[in-house]
C-alpha cells in the first residue's frame, strides 16, 4: 500500500494465515506440526469473538446436513467426522483443554404432516446417498429423547452425528498454537493478500512464503482476490442454560426444519439458527429470537424452562454451491467458504491444507477447487 | 455491629437515604432542597444498574393501572402524574439532562372476546372511580395508532397516561443531587438501619438525624426493621430498537392483559413485563422472552421487525396491599413498596417525604402508613 512500509522484523515465515477462527487456527497448528514457521493474523482478539466459530453450535452432522446437490460435501464431511475423535484427543493433549466432544447422536424430528413427509424424503435421500438412517416412530424417538414433545409426528436418528464445543476448540487451538510456536498476532486487520505476503490495514507488510486466507465470511473483504465468491449468511442463536441442580434437558442434538438444539456438558443448550441474507449485519432481532423459541418450545417444551444466557448472531461464509473453497488460487491458498459446516470440516481442512503447504499432494476433491468459479471470480 | 467501628468523618448529616434508585435519589434531592444535609448510600454504582428503576418501562399510568381495590393508590398516582411535568422540567434544568418525558397517552387493547369483556369491565370500573376513559372501536384505535394489528377486538384510550425514561431520570437525579450538595456514596451496602443512623456491611456506622429506607425490593433485606412487608416481584423486559433510518414504531404506550409497549424518543421500545414470585432471582428466561414477544407480536406485528437490544429483569418492591409504605415506622422513615408504580409515584413520594423530613405535616394518606401492617410487621 505504501512504498515506505516498515521493514519486517525477524525472518520471513513460511506461512501466514489470515483469520483466527477455528479453520485458521487449525490450519496454522497443522502447518506448524509439519515443521513450517507460521504467523497467524486476526483482526480481533484470540479467541476471536467475531468469528463464526465463536457463535457456532458445533454440530458434527454430515448425515443430518446431507443434501442431494452436495454429494462431495457429504463425502468430505464424513471424512472429517471420522477425524474428529483423534483431532479432539490430540488437541486436548496439546492444550490441556477439554473441547467438549460428545458422542451424542442426532435426532431429526417433524412437527406436522408436511414436515413428516419432508422427513420421509430425507430418509430416502440418505438411503440413496449410502448413509442410511433409522426411521423412528414418535414413541421410539421419545424413549430415546424424553424431552421431545408428545406431538412430534416422525423422526429419524443419525447415531454418528455428534457435537463439539467450538468455543472450547478455539481456546484449545490458541493454546496449542502458542505452545507449538505459531506467532499469533491479534488486532492485525489484513487489508490485502498477495502470493508473497499480506498488507495490514495500518500499512505494515508481512511477507511470507505462502499465504492462507481463512477469514470466513470476511474473506471477500480482503483485497487482492477480486470477485472471491464468499458471502455472509447471518445466523441468530440463543444460548440457554438449565438452572443449577437441574438435570440436563437433552441427551441428543435435536434438529427440525429450520432449527436445532445442541446440548453442552455444562448444562447449556445452543438453540439455532436463522438463515438470513443481510450482508455483514449481526444484530439480534425480535423475530429471530421469537421464531427460534416458538419452534424449539413446540418440539422440546422444556426449552422454555431454561434461562436465556445470551442472544447472538454470526456470519456463515457461503459460496454459490455451498461447498468450501480449498486450495490454491492465484497463488494464494484458500481455506474458506465452509458455510454451515466450518466446525465439522475443520480437521479435514487443516489436514489437507497442511499437506498442501508441505508441498505434498493433498488429494483435495476438484469439487472444492477455487478455480471452479474461475469465470465468476476472474 | 462492632464496638470498634471507625469514627465517622465529618459532621453528622441531617438525613441518610438508603438506596440509590429513582425514589431514593428523588427523596435525597428534595430533602437537600429543604436545606437539609443529606448522604445517600447505594450498594452499587450511581446510577444503579440493579435498581428496578434501571429496568422500569417508565409508564406514568394511574388510569390504566387503576384497580378497584386500590383507590388510594389511584388518588396518589393521579396526584403524582400531575406533578410529573414540573418535576421533569425542574430536573432537566437542574441537571442539563433530558429525562424523556412524553405526553404520548396510553391505549389499552384486547385481543379476543375474553379480553374485550375484560376491557369493558375496566372501562366501567374507571367510570365508577371517576376517571372515565374513551372506548374505541378497533378502527378508531388503529387510526390513532396505526401499528396495531387489524385483529384487535376493542380498546380504550387513557389520553393523560404518559411516559418518561427512568434511566434518564436517574442519571439526571444523580447530577442534580451532586450539584445540590448531596453526598453520594457508592459501593455502600447497608447492613442495618436504626433511628440514629445506619451500619454498612463493612461495619462502618453512619450516624444521621433521620434515616430514610428507599431500597426497593431490597428494603426487607436490611436489618433493623424485622418483618418489613416488602417482597420482590420479578419482571422481565426486552429493550427493542428500530433500525437506523426507520420511523418510530409507536406513538402511544400500548397495554394489554399481561404486557405493554412503551416507546422512547430514541426509537427504542420497551416491552414488558412478566410478574413472577421468584425471590431475588433476576435471570432472564426463555419462557419470559417468548411470551412477551408472542403477545406483543400479535397486537403490534411491527414489534417483530425491531432489533433486540437487551433482555433483562428487575424486582418490583411489592407490599401485601400493593400500596407503598410512606412515613415513619419505628422512628425510621420508609419510602418503599411502590410495586409497579415507583416511577409514577416518584414526585409525590419525594415531595411528601421531603416535607416530613423538614418536620412539616406531609399530609400522607393513612392508607400508606407503614403502621397498617403493625400486626404483621411487629
Spatial sequence of strands, sheet with the most strands of chain A: 5-6-4-14-15-16-13-17
Q: Tell me about the biggest sheet of chain A?
A: 8 strands, mixed
Mean pLDDT of chain A: 94
What oligomeric state do the depicted chains represent?
A: homodimer
Structural class of chain A: alpha/beta
Radius of gyration of chain A: 21 Å
CATH topology of the largest domain in chain A: FAD/NAD(P)-binding domain
Q: Shape of chain A, please? A: globular
| Count of DSSP strands of chain A | 19
User: Approximately what portion of the residues of chain A adopt beta-strand conformation?
Assistant: 15-25%
Distance separating the two termini of chain A: 22 Å
| Largest interface, C-beta closer than 8 angstroms, per-chain residues | A-B, 20 and 20 residues
**Helix percentage range of chain A:** 25-40%
Task: Give me the CATH superfamily of the largest domain in chain A.
Answer: FAD/NAD(P)-binding domain
The number of helices of chain A is 9
Tell me the domain tally of chain A.
2
Walk me through the structure:
With 378 residues, the first copy, chain A, is of the alpha/beta class. Chain A folds into two domains: 169 residues, FAD/NAD(P)-binding domain, CATH 3.50.50; 142 residues, D-Amino Acid Oxidase, Chain A, domain 2. Helix content of chain A is 29%, strand content 24%. Chain A starts with 14 loop residues before the first strand and ends with a helix. At the A-B interface, helix 7 and strand 17 of A face helix 8 and strand 17 of B.
Amino acid at each position: 500500500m505504501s512504498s515506505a512500509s516498515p521493514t519486517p522484523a525477524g525472518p520471513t515465515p513460511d506461512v501466514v494465515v489470515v483469520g483466527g477462527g477455528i479453520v485458521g487456527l487449525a490450519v496454522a497448528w497443522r502447518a506448524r506440526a509439519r515443521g513450517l514457521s507460521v504467523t497467524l493474523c486476526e483482526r480481533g482478539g484470540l479467541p476471536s469473538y467475531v468469528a463464526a466459530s465463536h457463535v457456532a453450535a458445533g454440530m458434527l452432522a454430515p448425515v443430518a446436513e446431507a443434501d442431494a446437490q452436495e454429494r462431495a460435501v457429504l463425502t468430505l464431511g464424513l471424512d472429517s467426522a471420522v477425524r474428529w475423535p483423534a483431532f479432539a484427543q490430540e488437541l486436548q493433549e496439546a492444550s490441556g483443554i477439554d473441547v467438549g466432544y460428545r458422542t451424542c447422536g442426532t435426532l431429526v424430528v417433524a412437527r406436522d404432516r408436511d414436515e413428516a413427509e419432508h422427513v420421509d424424503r430425507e430418509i430416502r435421500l440418505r438411503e440413496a446417498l449410502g448413509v442410511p438412517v433409522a426411521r423412528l416412530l414418535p414413541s421410539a424417538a421419545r424413549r430415546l429423547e424424553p424431552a421431545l414433545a408428545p406431538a412430534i409426528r416422525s423422526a429419524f436418528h443419525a447415531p454418528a452425528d455428534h457435537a463439539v464445543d467450538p468455543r472450547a476448540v478455539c481456546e484449545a487451538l490458541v493454546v496449542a498454537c502458542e505452545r507449538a510456536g505459531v506467532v499469533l498476532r491479534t488486532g492485525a486487520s489484513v487489508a490485502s493478500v498477495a502470493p508473497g505476503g499480506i498488507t495490514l490495514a495500518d500499512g505494515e507488510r508481512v511477507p511470507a512464503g505462502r499465504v492462507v486466507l481463512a477469514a470466513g465470511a470476511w474473506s471477500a473483504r480482503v483485497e487482492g482476490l477480486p470477485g472471491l465468491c464468499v458471502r455472509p449468511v447471518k445466523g441468530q442463536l440463543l444460548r440457554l442454560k438449565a438452572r443449577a441442580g437441574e438435570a440436563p434437558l437433552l441427551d441428543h442434538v435435536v434438529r427440525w426444519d429450520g432449527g436445532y438444539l445442541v446440548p453442552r456438558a455444562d448444562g447449556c443448550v445452543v438453540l439455532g439458527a436463522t438463515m438470513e441474507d443481510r450482508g455483514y449485519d449481526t444484530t439480534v432481532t425480535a423475530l429471530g429470537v421469537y421464531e427460534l423459541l416458538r419452534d424449539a418450545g413446540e418440539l422440546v417444551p422444556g426449552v422454555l424452562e431454561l434461562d436465556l444466557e445470551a442472544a447472538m448472531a454470526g456470519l456463515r461464509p457461503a459460496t454459490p454451491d455451498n461447498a468450501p473453497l480449498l486450495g490454491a488460487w492465484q497463488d494464494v491458498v484458500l481455506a474458506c467458504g465452509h458455510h454451515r459446516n466450518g466446525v465439522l470440516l475443520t480437521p479435514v481442512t487443516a489436514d489437507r491444507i497442511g499437506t498442501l503447504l508441505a508441498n505434498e499432494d493433498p488429494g483435495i476433491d476438484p469439487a472444492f477447487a477455487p478455480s471452479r468459479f474461475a469465470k465468476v471470480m476472474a
